[in-house]
Amino acid sequence: MAADGLVLYTNSGNKNSYKALIAAEYANIKLDVPSDFQFGETNKTPEFLKLNPAGKVPTLKTSNGGIFESNAIARYVARLSDTGLFGDTLLDTALVESWIDFSTTELDGPLASWAYPHFGIVAYDKKKEAAAQQALKKALGVLDAYLKTRTYLVGDAVTLADIIVFANLWLGYTKMFDPEFRKPFPNVLRFWQTLAAQPQFSKVVGSWSLPTEVVKPPAAKESKAKDTKPKAAKQDKEGSAAKQRGLQPPQQKQQQRQQLRRLSQRTPCHNCRRPQWPSTPGSACILTRLRQSSERSPLEASGRVPISPALPTTSTSWVTTRRASRCGAATISTTTKTMSISLS
Ligand SMILES: N[C@@H](CCC(=O)N[C@@H](CS)C(=O)NCC(=O)O)C(=O)O
To answer: Average of pLDDT values for 134-161?
Structure first.
């Protein structure tokens, strides 16, 4: 039976659209799926936004207006004829709704958090992945125990609860659940495979196979996360840990070490043999330069300190300073020599 004017906008292979398409098979109605739908374009047009203000798919166009959110679309389609997809009693209907909500929050949410980074949809984060996997395993454990004595979730026939749980586990059983992951949940696997074998399901989803390994996250994103984040985090951590211990962060320490190395490499002035800084082997120290040449010193050039060509006497002295600092449990003492020049 063709339902008048029912158009389902979706990109192909969208597991959320499977919900309405499978329900339509049970309702024995046809949903038109436009083949010219362009994801990211069609769903952003003003006409589309009138049907679904969020501009997302799936979206169902009826002769009276649009319906959005895949569960709501599936519910609407399941009620278009006497499908039995809500069970036989009021309690059955409530349980169908219970499992639909469970599926959305406990299965779809964590599975999406785990899987989407593996498809490059969002950035990969190891901690988030572990948390999502843990939450998903917990929910699958609940589902597995419940299905131990049951073929379907509510009653003895397929309901909308089965359809929605099936669709929400689609990415898992086709891309993410490798043999090791699915091993503790044999009843969920049997349930899912039983549904996949139903003609109303297989007509929509086509062929599929259980994954032998988990889809790998895009290499670039993973390595970027590995290369930059932890390094920056490590430096940050070292820096703040050092600050907490009253020490300088690592970059400053490195600069200090370089400066000390430069100072220790002083070479004698070719004329007076005094160690000079900055050190350029074979060159003259500033005092020699002032004495021997007509070169104007920067001080003289500034006009603030007039220095006559016949220089007055100069005296130099080295001041040794010791500084102790703490590095972890050890005390480090640094000795710095400073040359002071006095012109009289
Ligand atoms: N909770 C929604 C999810 C809808 C959704 O996120 N759809 C995605 C594709 S799976 C979309 O249309 N994204 C387009 C966009 O965000 O612009 C449902 O169940 O229908």
So the answer is: 98
pLDDT of res. 249: 55
Residue with CA nearest ligand 1 atom 11: 56
Looking at the structure, tell me whether residues 37 and 110 fall in a common domain.
no
CA 47–ligand 1 middle distance (angstroms): 17
**In the chain, % of residues over pLDDT 70:** 62
Q: What is the C-alpha to C-alpha distance for residues 242 and 225, in angstroms, rounded to an integer?
A: 25
**Coil, helix or strand for 51?**
helix
Q: Tell which of 50, 83, 116 closes a domain.
A: 83
**72 and 186, same domain (yes or no):** no
CA of 208 to the centre of ligand 1 (A): 23
| pLDDT greater than 80 at residue 137 | yes
Q: Residue 10 is part of which domain span? A: 1-83
Q: Tell me how crowded residue 309 is: count the other CB atoms within 10 A of its CB.
A: 10
Q: Whole-model pTM?
A: 0.67
pLDDT of residue 319: 55
The CATH number linked to 52 is: 3.40.30.10
Specify if 310 maps to a domain: no
- What are the distances in angstroms from CA 273 to CA 99, 266, 281, 287, 295? 90, 11, 11, 11, 20
pLDDT digits (tens, 9 = 90+) for 161-190: 999 999 999 999 999 999 999 999 999 999
Please give the single-letter amino acid code of residue 199. P
The CA distances from residue 334 to 54, 68, 265, in Å, are: 65, 71, 16
Is 116 among the domain residues? yes
Count of domains forming the chain: 2
Based on the fold, state whether residues 206 and 110 are members of the same structural domain. yes
Residue 13 CA to ligand 1 center (angstroms) comes to: 13
